[in-house]
């Protein structure tokens, strides 16, 4: 559903002139070692920026996507933006209805399936990572988790930054590129569903993260897998419980 006052892209477009520095910054970041900007690098930049807007909620479920406006806002031609949108559609972060593209809505049924898939993949990843993750990385993640003392102080971005540090760190330490890429894709869709809106998950999730780290530090693959699976199971149960109390859900 498009918010009142026009589409999100319309609102961005009205401030496009004051944000023209975006194109300059992007070009500075995208130069190759030879000093050239490649089509692939422009498409990757467009993808990264759009993905960040989707995951932050600035582009909300149901928002209409307008390729031309997005290209103008980013100071790019439509080709790299179209490539980025096609990639986001393939990853199911965007959905097509007829000729129009919209920000995807993650249904309750889908998030349950996503969490089930994550349970399988991340349970195996942490089992492997428990024998490989370095002590310095464990200590860094632990310090970040301990530093999240209050949900209101941390905010959504801070919460997801630490959450990604743990889950992506484990996926990377497992050393399997295919598993890592699947986990990353599933976690992006998890974030779009918005698990942060489930009451009570902040403190519980923080404790669960500590148990996962304890098992990794103890070099106990079985305990690490058990802690990870319990962590994901509890998130799923919290969704079901929330729906039972609210009497409905998103499909």
TrEMBL record:
Residue span(s) of domain HTH gntR-type: 40-106
Keyword annotations from UniProtKB, A to Z: DNA-binding, Transcription, Transcription regulation
Domain of life per record: Bacteria
Family annotation (InterPro entries): GntR_C, TF_FadR/GntR_C, Tscrpt_reg_HTH_GntR, WH-like_DNA-bd_sf, WH_DNA-bd_sf
Listed SUPFAM superfamilies: GntR ligand-binding domain-like, Winged helix' DNA-binding domain
Xref: PROSITE patterns: HTH_GNTR
MF terms in GO: DNA binding; DNA-binding transcription factor activity
PANTHER family: TRANSCRIPTIONAL REGULATOR, GNTR FAMILY, UXU OPERON TRANSCRIPTIONAL REGULATOR
Protein name: GntR family transcriptional regulator
């Amino acid at each position: 559903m498009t918010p009142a006052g026009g589409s999100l892209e319309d609102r961005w477009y009205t401030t496009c002139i004051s944000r023209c520095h975006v194109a300059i910054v992007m070009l500075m970041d995208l130069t190759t070692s030879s000093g050239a900007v490649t089509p692939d690098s422009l498409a990757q930049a467009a993808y990264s920026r759009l993905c960040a807007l989707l995951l932050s909620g600035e582009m909300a479920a149901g928002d209409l996507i307008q390729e031309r406006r997005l290209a103008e806002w980013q100071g790019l031609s439509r080709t790299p933006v179209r490539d980025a949108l096609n990639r986001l559609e393939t990853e199911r972060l965007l959905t097509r209805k007829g000729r129009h593209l919209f920000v995807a809505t993650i249904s309750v049924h889908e998030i349950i399936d996503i969490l089930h898939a994550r349970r399988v993949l991340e349970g195996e990843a942490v089992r492997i990572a428990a024998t490989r993750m370095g002590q310095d990385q464990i200590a860094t993640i632990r310090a970040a988790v301990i530093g999240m003392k209050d949900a209101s102080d941390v905010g959504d971005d801070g919460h997801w930054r630490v959450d990604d540090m743990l889950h992506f760190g484990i996926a990377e330490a497992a050393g399997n590129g295919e598993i890592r890429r699947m986990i990353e894709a599933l976690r992006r869709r998890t974030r779009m569903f918005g698990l942060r809106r489930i009451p009570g998950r902040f403190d519980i999730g923080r404790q669960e993260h500590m148990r996962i780290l304890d098992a990794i530090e103890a070099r106990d693959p079985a305990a690490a897998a058990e802690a990870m699976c319990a962590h994901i199971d509890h998130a799923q149960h919290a969704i079901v419980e929330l729906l039972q109390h609210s009497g409905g859900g998103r499909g």
